[in-house]
Specification:
This protein is mostly beta strands and 248 residues long. The protein is built from one helix and 21 strands. Helices cover 3% and strands 48% of the residues. The strands form six sheets. Strands 9, 11, 14, 15 and 16 form a five-stranded mixed sheet that branches. Strands 3-2-6-7 form a four-stranded antiparallel sheet, with no helix packed on it.
Length: 248
């Protein structure tokens, strides 16, 4: 969670009975004056709703999870307390784009282990290319969930598949979701496996599909040597090998 929002209300029988209101975390008073991320707002007494105090913390840190206690110090009565337990959690966001993955891993950190993860694929709950969702072990406040990807079941040139993961806690509360677009990079017109070059020059061509952005390029090789420009043509002649192409 990126923030904590907690509130507590009571009816003390009139605002004259309340001496002060404070919040504690682990027995230590929460001081909003020392941290701009923390806000404590205590409303005036209302005969219908009583008196409400709200605690808000943004940009929550891992050690800020646990029990928070709202303490009403009374003038004529014993202090009244109310406690709420806050779980601090965070999903490590998936990359915006994923290319030909063999698996997708979503990682969660928090004070409480998520109990399950719900995967969707372009909004659907099932896709033949994605299978075997597997949870890891909750260790050092971290757990990862993995799903296997079979790229052979995704058609060449198909649109990217939006894969989304949402973590669940006892089937009741969910975390912010994280999403990645899975692209299949493939040669729709590949190079021949072998070829004989008998003329002085030979043109090789291939066609690839994937995504339309600056990260998508075709790299040419002869043997283990990358061919970067026309000046490397002598290398091709010297190697006497058919060039290969790879996607990056």
């Amino acid at each position: 969670s990126s923030g904590i929002n907690a509130e507590w209300s009571l009816r003390p029988g009139g605002d004259d009975n309340v001496k002060s209101v404070s919040w504690k975390h682990g027995g230590v008073v929460v001081n909003a004056d020392d941290d701009p991320r923390i806000s404590i707002v205590t409303a005036d007494y209302n005969s219908v709703s009583g008196q409400k105090s709200e605690l808000s913390i943004t940009g929550v840190k891992k050690d800020e999870g646990g029990s928070y206690t709202c303490v009403y110090e009374m003038k004529t009565l014993t202090a009244l307390e109310g406690t709420i337990t806050v779980d601090v959690f965070k999903i490590i966001a998936l990359p915006t784009y994923t290319y030909n993955p063999s698996s997708i891993v979503v990682t969660f950190t928090g004070t409480t282990a998520a109990t399950s993860v719900a995967w969707t694929f372009d909004g659907a709950t099932e896709n033949a290319a994605f299978s075997n969702p597997t949870p890891g072990t909750f260790t050092d406040n971290e757990i990862s969930y993995t799903i296997t990807v079979d790229m052979s079941k995704i058609n060449d040139g198909s649109a990217p598949i939006k894969v989304k993961a949402v973590l669940s806690f006892d089937g009741k509360t969910t975390s912010p979701e994280t999403e990645t677009s899975v692209y299949k990079r493939s040669f729709t017109t590949p190079l021949p496996a072998t070829d004989k070059v008998t003329e002085a020059s030979k043109e090789f061509s291939c066609v690839a599909s994937g995504e339309n952005n600056d990260d998508f390029t075709i790299i040419w090789f002869v043997g283990e040597t990358e061919i970067k420009d026309a000046d490397d043509s002598a290398t091709i002649a010297k190697k006497k090998k058919v060039p290969t192409a790879t996607l990056r």
